[in-house]
Amino acid sequence: MNAKHLIAGAALALGCWTGAQEAEAPRIVCFGDSLTSCGGAGGRYSDMLQKSLPGFQVINSGVSGDTLAGGLARLESDVLKHRPVCVIVGLGANDYWRRRRTLAALKRDYEAIVSRCHAAGIRVLIVSCFGNDKVPDGVDLDFDRPGLPLEHYAAGLAAIERELVGKYSCGYVPDMQCGILPKGRGDLWNDRNHPNAAGNRIVADTLLPELRKLLPRPQSE
Predict the structure, then answer these.
(1) Which CATH number fits domain 25-214: 3.30.2290.10, 3.40.50.150, 3.40.50.1110, 3.90.1150.10?
(2) How high is the pLDDT of residue 2?
(3) pTM score, two decimals?
(4) Burial class of residue 24 (count of CB atoms within 10 Å of its CB; 0-12, 13-18, 19+)
């Protein structure tokens, strides 16, 4: 075998080894709506997490416009099939804006997502925009009526999240956007609702401390 063949063989072996190493890296799935998919190529918060966690493979499963029902429908294909060690669940914002379903229906879908991940041995980090919202004074939330005022939906989603966090020992980030407020800043936002790459860097930094608590050790970072 000549030198050219030796070099080619070594390159092929190195490529196979590198691919095997990547395949063996524990996986993290970022599972959500446009807040997960926004930011452009290399500018999503999942891309920033990948840079901070080189010992893991971070998969973005964000779908713009998705809801809790949509997330549940694609859970198998977009999360469970990857066999991740952890899933970041960021859903509910579009349910909030649309106000079409009851809080009881949203809770059923949310719990189905979390419980199926939990049963598969996947650690869950719930990331929210509503976790600090409280039930308005004098209001008894109606979980069985659609079309509630927005502030009631926000408080209801926060209550659902806190219940699931306690029941399934999830990690929790109550406000994933707390570091990039107010909205609309041109340096951090593409529009009123979606961060740009710079904003997503801050979002990733906000998630990292809670995410690290759920990840297996040691981490090669």
Answers:
(1) 3.40.50.1110
(2) 53
(3) 0.88
(4) exposed
